[in-house]
Sulfotransferase domain-containing protein
Amino acid sequence: MLTTSFSFIEIKSKMISRTSSNTRDSFDVLGKTKHLNEDDNTQDIQETESIVIGETRKAFLNDTFLDRDIVNGRLVTSEGVPVKVVILVASSARSGSSMIGELLAQQDNQLYLFEPVYYTLKNSAINGTDILRDMIYCQISDEYTKWLRSMSPNKIFRHPMTGRNCGRKNACLTAPALKEACRKANNRIMKVIRIRMRWMKELLDDPYVDLKVIHLVRDPRATIISRRKTFGAKTLNAGYQCHGIEEDLRVTPQLMREYPDKVMGITYEDFCIDPIGKATEMWHFISDNKSSTLPTAWSKYIEGHTQGSPSNKRPFAYSTFRNSKIEYQEWRRQITKKALVEIEKHCKPVLKLLGYNLFGTLKKSRNLDIPLFSKNRIPYTDL
């Protein structure tokens, strides 16, 4: 059955590649994808992708495993308990997604997958949305678990349950073992940074899945500087980075209106300033209960990971221990004049949409008495 799943993904990829290569997606279309051809500057509505998605979806939903995992129109565990799926989508790397992903994973009976879509970078025939769908329905392949075993433990084992159950990486990272663990988990949580928010619509429309999507975004001046520092990038590539972020910021409010109980937006800065408050908002959203209190495990995690000493340096790039109220503006002390000017030039629309001030000069950037947020800013969660 897994072979069927991967074969139709490959067919889809090949069909789309003939119609969408050398194109750039515009921001204003949900459902059908509007493209601007970069070679001849002519616009074309590419319907092939939606047609192929429809055909592959039919094949997927006809898969026989649904006979046991769909009960009364709902995705359930192997023990018949309704499943809740949470996908944390970060608009770019270095957005605080590792910490918030771990926070979401502080639940019992859950499976947390750290960046499953990263697998698609090594397998260009596989679409990221298809990978997420496979993970939601526990369709896990030998190829995927082989890739997992090749990764650093810091990138895979990011939460207590996995650490307890997989003392040795090879002991449980097999397709049958991971599939069984997945089917038992009534909370399936994924953190991804290589997905655009408009791609979420296909998953949100799945009638069988209780899906919650949290979109996380951070000031691009911070993410780009952090990416350069962490990955050693020689160029800022601000235009490319902010093109994707701007698209997400325009699409996500549309999705929040269309799926008010399924989509939520949050900024890293707001979480850092008020981690308990924002965590409570996320919990109310996930639990569908606005009067519920924050789980003890979440409160303990926040206390241990956001209140570090200002003098303490994070032990490694992906560490989730920090003093959040200080760190979220640390980039203002580190950014160079050239980087500040370039990023603000290319990312002005993003900064305006987020309600962040433009500084223009290092003097203003370094002066923390000048607030990061503009006076009339509307929090992302309220858009």
Q: What stands out?
A: The chain has two domains: 1-64, 70-382. The radius of gyration is 21 Å. The longest strand covers residues 210-217. Confidence is low (pLDDT under 50) at residues 1-62, 309-319.
